[in-house]
Design goal:
By secondary structure, this protein is α/β, with parallel strands linked by helices. It has nine helices and eight strands.
Length: about 270
């Protein structure tokens, strides 16, 4: 009987994933005369929209069939279905083709370029027509692009809220940051509700507790909230997705924290 139950649970899990994945569509959203390819999951009923910005260079290399060529293990990318299950329309965007490099990655400075900021605005406008409120959720280096998006945003293309997880917020060594991308203008960030989610064991020098404290001082209040999570240390590079920096082992807690905060605001 126990063996039968195990097999039944295996079959349910095996077939449930593709059934849900069939709801994921590939869309192409116009911006600046180019088209941004993205994965869209649209539940029948939704409480709002989230745009999930991956970390690293952000070039997901999404194929016309929806296959992810890079970054499938990124914390936000790997949990995208969970946001839809929580009742949100979900958009996972690739990088605009004119910002990509042929062999992968993106051109120098793309993360904080005006073009990428405008592109996020186009994505916000697209999701706003689908379901409001629209929240940009960015992780790690994705926070840099979130910063330039606020700098470039107009009224219709400005997100209603922003969530930054294990984010690169302040200048550390020669790395880009949210602060730099926003032209060191905290008033841009104070204009919208913002949640920063940090991991107590994050050992990445670009996103650790000291960086979070510096960001709180830089913001000097506004509508900023900071939530600290805890979990396993993880493995590998301390700035990669399988470590505490990538919230290894507590994906569900991250999703519940993000979605709970958005719903509470609404």
């Amino acid at each position: 009987m126990r063996a039968f139950t195990f097999i039944l649970l295996f079959l349910v899990q095996f077939f449930a994933v593709p059934a849900f994945a069939q709801q994921e569509a590939v869309v192409e959203i116009p911006s600046r005369g180019v088209k941004i390819r993205a994965l869209l999951i649209r539940p029948a009923q939704s409480a709002g929209s989230v745009i999930l910005l991956a970390g690293g260079h952000g070039n997901l290399q999404i194929s016309p069939q929806g296959k992810i060529g890079w970054g499938a293990g990124n914390q936000l990318v790997r949990t995208r279905a969970e946001y839809a299950k929580a009742g949100f329309a979900v958009l996972v965007p690739d990088v605009a083709p004119d910002l990509k490099l042929p062999g992968g990655g993106v051109r120098q400075g793309a993360r904080y370029s005006r073009e990428w900021g405008e592109d996020i605005g186009s994505l916000v406008g697209y999701m706003r027509r689908m379901k409001e409120p629209v929240t940009v959720v960015a992780t790690s280096r994705g926070a840099v692009t979130a910063g330039v998006a606020l700098k470039e945003a107009e009224k219709f293309t400005r997100p209603d809220a922003m969530v930054l997880t294990a984010p690169m917020l302040m200048k550390v060594e020669n790395q880009p940051s949210f602060q730099m991308a926003a032209d060191n203008r905290p008033e841009k960030a104070r204009a919208i509700p913002m949640l920063v989610i940090a991991h107590r064991k994050d050992a990445c020098s670009y996103t650790n507790a000291d960086v979070i404290k510096r960001f709180e001082d830089w913001m000097k209040g506004g509508k900023l909230e900071v939530t600290w999570l805890d979990g396993p240390q993880g493995t590998g590079d301390p700035c990669e997705a399988q470590s505490a920096h990538g919230f290894f082992g507590i994906d569900g807690q991250v999703v519940r924290t993000v979605t709970g905060w958005i719903k509470a605001r609404k």
